[in-house]
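User: These chains co-purify. Model them together.
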Amino acid sequence: MSLILEGVSKSVNGQPHIHATDLELLGGTMNVLLGPTSSGKTSLMRLMAGLDAPNTGKVIWDGKDVTGMRVQDRGVAMVYQQFINYPSMTVYENIASPMRLLRKSKDQIDSAVKKAAELMKLAPELLARKPLELSGGQQQRCALARALVKEAGLVLLDEPLANLDYKLREELRAEIPKIFEEAGSIFVYATTEPEEALLLGGNTATMWEGRITQFGKTPIVYRQPVNATTARVFSDPPMNFLKVRMTGGRLHFGDGQSVPASDAFTGLTEGNYLAGFRPNHLEMAKKGPSALEFATKLQVTEITGSETFIHLDHQGDSWVGLIHGVKILEIGAMMDVFLDPKHVYIFAEDGTSVAPASYATAA
Amino acid sequence: MSDLTHTSAKRGLRLPKINGSAVVMGLYLLFLLLPIYWLLIMSLKTNSEILNTFTLWPEDLTFDNYLTILTDSSWYMGYVNSMIYVVMNMVISLAVALPAAYAFSRYSFLGDKHLFFWLLTNRMAPPAVFALPFFQLYSSIGLFDTHIAVALAHALFNVPLAVWILEGFMRGVPKEIDETAYIDGYSFPRFFVQIFTPLVASGIGVTAFFLFMFSWVELLLSRTLTSVDAKPIAATMTRTVGADGIDWGVLAAAGVLTILPGALVIYFVRNYIAKGFALGRV
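Assistant: Joint model of the two components:
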């Protein structure tokens, strides 16, 4: 079982939504499309489902070109961010409807519907109700059950948990990979949250402005982004950047600070680079002798309960730091922050990764 | 005690308390219902009472007027004819407008906005403008004095209205439902009948009501395009001058019977109508 996109592109009214994209998804895998809103996640999914036809390129399913094929013949299942069910049918009929169209026997339908409802924790008495009489979470579980019962080879989940409340989201997020692992289909899961991608595991394709910037195993994409865009997308809050310069065998971070070009920085040629580091690597105290020190101005603090986000201004660049514990800080004050050089990713000026941080390659 | 006398003394000077809103409502209903009441009592009076005396209610109650209408085929066939072409028109208009409204609500195609507006401009022309061409056209192709002739003529006005109302309702149904249905394997016709139509049922109800209302009260076209076989009740009513003058009582009874179907339809769809207004259409 495999889904291959070959140079697939799509533009609407002359505006490119998806640039020529190659992608290969294998059976039994969970694939996360990660990107901000309007980065092309939904557009790409619609091309995979066959709801839209690509302008160029081919969609190949199990070695067969299905590019122009009708959606009805594709054998896909899809769940939207909005809770989409058939309001005029009961929950039971909603879940059963794809099977009825496949002309399955009554017993088969009944057992499959009951099983799917149980997996999605829909109580039997809910099955007789209409979808609009259910809570939002139950409605979405009904939609998920309908996608599950079809046993489609390709299951597309377009931000299925985005409209659910926090608690339910956590619960379903843990269950979805388990449930779908058993089914053995190809799963594509779109999300805007890096955290969700990491929790779901599998593979991740990071998307930015209609392009897949990187595709691979989720931890690898997270730890070794191939370019600054991927690093920015796959980091919440986004990665911080700083212009650096390599001269005379030392990497200069400004303010007269430099580190020798050893470890990850070995082999960097002379010139300008972009240094990136994640917010959680910014420290308020000097933890080691090699730590870099930056003088910044505190703009805003956000306290989440156990952590504090600090928004800083470093010579015109805005940085975000994630500090453990609740810190009460004075807004507008100067503040020294520290960074261990082994947490620094080096990107070329055009954004391609030159040297991933040494901590990321060591693990 | 002293407090009580004080207030009652003060109140004694005032006029009895009047519920202002009740008065307004009463007057409103009076003005609104007076003509209908007058029609109703006329239909229950004899001709001599109508013409010779002024009475606020029938002194000589009679149901003869209704009996005349319900037994004389030249009268009751007027109702039957009207019903036939009204129902025909509703069926034709809905059958045409449902797919058209779906297309307008779902797809963008060349000139869709202009076409949508152009449909509406059809409503702006007075029916009288079309009476002559319709009469000549139907006469030459042998459709004159048939029910379908009137139904088709009314469709010219009703189809745009139906498309306009239905499009508003259909736009309220998320497109994702269509797509989910296709993904689940529904063919378009099956999806349309089994899933989509129930979702816009209230819209269809509102539309049917407006189609009925237009077709039922429209007089000019229906009278021009018929003579005997498909003569509508409204036309029958305008031709009741007999040898002994106008039969007022029968005419009033016919009027009451003409109002009835409309009143019934309004009663059944009253909740949907409000919804139709809420959608910014109608």
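Chain A has nine helices and 21 strands.
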